[in-house]
Write a structure and sequence with these properties.
Oligomer: single chain
Distance between the termini: 21 Å
Strand order of the largest sheet: 1-2
Mean pLDDT: 92
Largest sheet: 2 strands, antiparallel
Order of helices and strands: HHHEEHH
Number of strands: 2
Low-confidence stretches: none
Length: about 130
């Protein structure tokens, strides 16, 4: 499991949070799947258990997981989280389009360039 990139400037717990969220968005982690225990994940990642616990606490605070006393942490099955992320992404893209328009970049030119780059991205298997 590749959850940590030591070249990344973000704190390790944030990287763990973002990677688990991505796995949930992609459907790799399904609702009610059990998360790895804090201790086992800390050993696997060669990190402090407190770091993993902090990541799990943040995931729970954001509504991505829930805790069952004595059993562990589980993925929360809530489509509203994915819908919320979709709305956040759409808002960010719209802001970028507004910025491009404000500085005089024709939106048609922007759309054409994005379309071309997306085609290349998918041609490369989505790994560009």
């Amino acid at each position: 499991m590749k959850l940590i990139d030591y070249q990344d400037s973000r704190p390790i717990y944030e990287q763990i949070v973002e990677n688990f969220k991505l796995q949930m968005y992609k459907g790799i982690l399904q609702p009610d799947d059990q998360m790895p225990s804090v201790r086992s994940l800390a050993i696997e990642l060669s990190t402090n258990p407190n770091t993993v616990q902090k990541a799990y606490a943040e995931l729970e605070r954001q509504g991505f997981i829930y805790t069952v006393k004595g059993r562990g942490n589980f993925v929360k099955g809530n489509d509203a989280l994915k819908d919320s992320k979709k709305e956040e992404l759409i808002s960010a893209v719209l802001e970028l389009f507004k910025e491009a328009d404000d500085i005089g970049i024709p939106l048609e030119e922007l759309f054409a360039e994005i379309k071309l780059r997306l085609a290349n991205y998918y041609k490369m298997g989505g790994n560009a």
